Amino acid sequence: MNQSQPxxxxxxxxxxxxxxxxxxxxxxxxxHDHVYTDADQLRxxxxxxxxxxxxxxxxxxxxxxxxxxRDVVRACSDAGVPWVARGAGSGLSGGAxxxxxxVLIALTRMxxxxxxxxxxxxxxxxxxxxxxxxxxAVGPTHFYPPDPSSQIVCSIGGNVAENSxxxxxxxxxxxxNYVTGLEIVLADGAVVTLGGKxxxxxxxxxxxxxxxxxxxxxICTSVTLRVIPVPEAIKTMVAxxxxxAQAGEAVSEIVSGGVIPGAIEMMDNLTIQAAEQAxxxxxxxxxxxxxxxxxxxxxxxxxxxxxxxxxxxxRNGAIxxxxxxxxxxxxxxxxxxxxxxxAMGRIASNYYVQDxxxxxxxxxxxxxxxxxxxxxxxMRVANVFHAGDGNLHPLVLYDGEAExxxxxxxxxxxxxACVDAGGSITGxxxxxxxxxxxxxxMFEEPDLAAFQMLRCAFDPRGLANPGKVMPTPRLCxxxxxxxxxxxLERDGVAERF
Amino acid sequence: MAHPANTIRGEAPATALDAAELLHACALExxxxxxxxxxxxxxxxxGAEPALxxxxxxxxxxxxxxxxxxxxxxxxxxxxGELDDVLAAAGQMLALDPPLGAHGKATVGGVIAAADSGPxxxxxxxxxxxxxxxxxxxxxxxxxxxxxxxxxxxxxxxxAKLFSGSFGTLGLIAExxxxxxxRPRSQATATGTTxxxxxxxxxxxxxxxxxxxxxxxxxxxxxxxxxxxARFGGVAAGDQAAAARRLLSRAGVQAAxxxxxxxxxxxxxxxxxxxxxxxxxxxxxxPSQLADACVAAQVAGGSLVGRAALGVSWIALPAAAPGELxxxxxxxxKVLAPSPCVVLDAPAYVRTHLDPWDHPEDAALxxxxxxxxxxxxxxxxxxxxxxxxx
Lengths: 497, 390
Prior knowledge:
Chain A is an alpha+beta fold. Chain A is built from 17 helices and 19 strands.
């Protein structure tokens, strides 16, 4: 479509300020009240949830409809200006960091639930609807399982971009397992419908490619989600262990025994201390690990499995088990877990949240490595862990700006340890700007080239959220024509290795 | 097969790199390559007969089985049935139970490339939901990886999903990392029968919206008689099946508990494929269309099996003159529009005289062509079989 045009410059070369002509078009599309260009207004949007990175866009626009989004994107396309989509701005990898002098498209005004279709277990929403609002809209009979900790504020559009998970995704899956349809706008302004309420639309699984693409393939204007019936019963317990290794053994035995808990979360001693100070749930602060296990499903199945789980914990050295007596007690246990990040403020002045994934069986060796790194850097590291799926959230604690660089370096060493253990640099926070430098630890050049093929199919000019995900800026160039050979290839000289 | 296989050159590369080099050589020569596993699924447009057949028979290793992590790394030529035997020994399974084809030889690569699935999909998802990472051989001669070996991972683009269901048109899936599940400790099935499609759909809906934890929730419609089949797996499978039976009874169907349930489910799987000379149409519908789909199958003289809560059904039409099949399929599509009705098994005539993919010329197709053009610009891999003639 735009293949005849020259590719735009990579994001690192700062583009010129927005032209009056483009600003006039943005005003015409969104209305004067919904285009921000004053420095004070722009400042609100210069970071997302990862405050280490800041960049000031040329304008922030707040479209109110799919048509306005399309027209904003078309205006940017015509002007050759890059843009970034932003939901609630709660992301933790700098994925919604603006491009300097680019356009930031904030979707906070697109908060309508478009359709609730319970007979087909679907809901259609605009991207600015929050994660929690989706479950509320289909309750009390149904719910939407992915539940990132930020679910009260984070938007579905952001969840789609990041393929968000949460505490319950080991059993129920991630955002990508629940998105059945999307309406997207490509960077050239084309509106594309992918999937729908039905599963298995013929053709490439572009839904699967789009979810988790961190805003680099386009912007979604409507999202169709699968929702499921609420479980009949929920049983929650906390088991306390002397060591994280014992707790890890218990997790492995529970999972391999055929029980798939709704959630299984581990907190280490430092995390327990901080969370207990914040919430006061009565967790003992002298234990090595707390394992929160929640079983949900049919009552008979829950009851039958619960005794098994208790027995497994005891067999693996649990020194205490607390079973939630009622809904209030269950809420208290979860509040303790979900307060873990914020509670770090009580034991350190600053902290850096890391997000890595390891094969579950590598937990003891990776935790030992983290302890070693913690000693080496002289900084404390607290660990919170989605134990079922191996998603580790080490929190590097530090004091003051002087230690910030060291803390970040330590956090980087931790993700490297995750990759070395056969894991991933990110389980749910995304690559964004923050982790693109680690991408070469996981992916080699041909892998990155294949990623770029996908990106170029969607956005050959690189206007959608440039400078994210890929470790270095890349251009697309033209698609080779079907019958055009490179001269070297034609002469039989070419070797691509 | 339109031509005897011996007129076509066959190659079975032993490594991903060999496969990529072969594809690249073909790309340079403009030789079309047909990528196939054991060849149990001749779906899509017949396409032109290729000069070369790339088979995955030499890529047949179970590379890793990480029992403690419930993951495995597999080469594409591994037969699903043989894999199941290996995993069963550890009390685990790859939760993919599509029909295994004529000789029971369906391969991991073929099933993933065709996005095929069976009754277990209700609980565990489709291939796209179970594949954690892929290694692909591309026609530019490179071998690329995406995803990883861990259950949770959002680093990089999800090419595993892009290649799942891509029918080999983007390149060869040379290795996959998959998520495994524990085998259920016990299983039990409740069934409900009725001769009224609307009652069948209602009864299936009651279970789909119940808080029972189903392993599979299927329906079938054959010879004016319908059945709901609900299977449970776990510690309390029998108790859950009993509860399902009560719900089915209340929904007005003839409910029963089935002890020896495996043959019932094997029949559900088998009904996703057609007899020689017949056709199978996969309906990507909505649960609310279930009664209409049953009626459409009956009017066309065929039968239906489906995943009730997912809205995906397979309508099998008995052997008939190809022209009649084309007419019948067109009628089914008209009744169930706009739900896509993809023709799977069918004589080549049928797959030539209608669009087997039931895909409109829309913006999504334009984008799919752009994806194809980036990954396989020379149209070397499985040309002209996929949507829009990709």
